[in-house]
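Dear H.,

Thanks for agreeing to be a second pair of eyes. The structure we're designing against is below in token form, covering all 235 positions.
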């Protein structure tokens, strides 16, 4: 599904990512972990085309997309839930959800209505609050809205940047259950950036750990070195 080959990224003259090799197989949940400031969000922005690569290549469904614009990637099936949620605080919940259709040019009216009802079934609180201004929602509700706004157009690849940051345990559990349900369906590939190792281990099928802009540890659920991962994630 998604493959990164020797991806390097600079901010100005400062190298941030160095020779990243990473794969997200079709229908799998791949977790990218590391402490704050090691380059995880930079990598996600690079995958979305928000940052330019210094070197390396990105392939999606076998096609080289390294130089595609962000809008092209979105139309091709990339979905991104950024760190900090990125909702539109002065629009209603319903209006935020409609914004999710912007990159779904091929969805007809009936398909859009069905997709809207589907996300309401996943997040019933959003249906109850559909006329509320999004900025008045709690942090957990805003996170659910950020999820729903991306899921509404049924992406092929879902990029989640620390979805558990700053939310209460009950919402964390709901997010965990949602990711597991999406993984069970097998219709979507997920790259999850996460700092909580236990959360990642509960939902992931393959794991990468970053340190100072490079991948330093990786493995699948059966052979991943959890003790070493805890050392890299320790503050």
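And this is the sequence the design step returned. I haven't edited it by hand at all.
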């Amino acid at each position: 599904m998604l493959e990164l080959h020797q991806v390097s990224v600079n901010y100005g003259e400062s190298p941030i990512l160095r020779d990243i090799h990473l794969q997200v197989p079709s229908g799998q949940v791949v977790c990218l972990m590391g402490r704050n400031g090691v380059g995880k969000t930079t990598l996600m922005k690079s995958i979305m085309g928000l940052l330019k690569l210094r070197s390396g290549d990105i392939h999606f469904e076998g096609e080289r997309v390294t130089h595609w614009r962000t809008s092209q990637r979105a139309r091709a099936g990339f979905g991104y839930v950024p760190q900090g949620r990125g909702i539109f605080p002065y629009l209603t919940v319903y209006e935020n959800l409609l914004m999710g259709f912007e990159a779904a040019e091929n969805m007809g009216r009936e398909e859009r209505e069905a997709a809207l009802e589907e996300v309401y079934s996943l997040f019933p609180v959003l249906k109850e609050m559909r006329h509320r201004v999004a900025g008045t929602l709690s942090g957990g509700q805003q996170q659910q809205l950020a999820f729903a706004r991306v899921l509404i157009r049924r992406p092929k690849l879902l990029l989640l940047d620390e979805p558990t940051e700053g939310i209460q345990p009950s919402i964390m559990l709901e997010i965990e259950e949602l990711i597991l349900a999406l993984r069970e369906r097998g219709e979507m590939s997920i790259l999850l950036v996460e700092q909580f190792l236990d959360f990642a281990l509960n939902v992931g099928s393959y794991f990468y750990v970053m340190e100072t802009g490079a991948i330093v540890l990786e493995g699948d659920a059966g052979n991943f070195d959890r003790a070493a991962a805890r050392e890299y994630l320790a503050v």
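Two observations from my side: The CA atoms of residues 164 and 193 lie 10 Å apart. The chain has nine helices and ten strands.

Warmly,
E.
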